[in-house]
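User: Can you help me understand a structure? I only have the sequence.
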Amino acid sequence: MLDRVVSYVWFAAQALTVCLVVLLALVSRSYAESEDLSVAQDNKSLVSNVGSRPSLTTDTQQRTTLRLPVPDPNAPAKPTLETVLHVANESYDQVREEITDYTCVLVRRERVDGRLGPHEFAYAKVRNRRVHNGEIITPFSIYLKFLKPKDVAGREVLYVEGANDNEMLVRRGGIRMS
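Assistant: Let's start by predicting it. Here is the structure, written out as tokens:
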């Protein structure tokens, strides 16, 4: 059971990092390639009222600024795996340099022996490694506290790079701890 938790935490941390990197890459790319587009709010072809409700604005001169991505004419129609990996690696390097830590709520659902289990929720804190002059100032570390369901609630997992023989500390939690 402990090996399964350790492998899950490591996989979850890596998956979270990759997802964050790809998300940041896509967001930064779309903002970098966007331009402002002014659209009149009363133009029914671009902005329409919901249902039959009347418009809340009466000023016909009021405008809304939208940011829409502009496609690069030199870019291939569909990104190749090589392009996606290149963007992900660049974004990963940027995250490692600029983001020192982050928190999130992980949600997972596991299928074991063909049976889909319940959703599990865990509060996660990730601290990236910081190096100055070749010396590690802050080691890479992950903290997880499981929130739901009851059988895992209260379980805590801590990993600190270079500490505890590079092994995770796990406090079981759940119904046993009640």
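Now, to help you interpret it: Residues 2-32 form the longest helix (31 residues). The chain has one domain: 2-47+62-177. Let me know which part you'd like to focus on.
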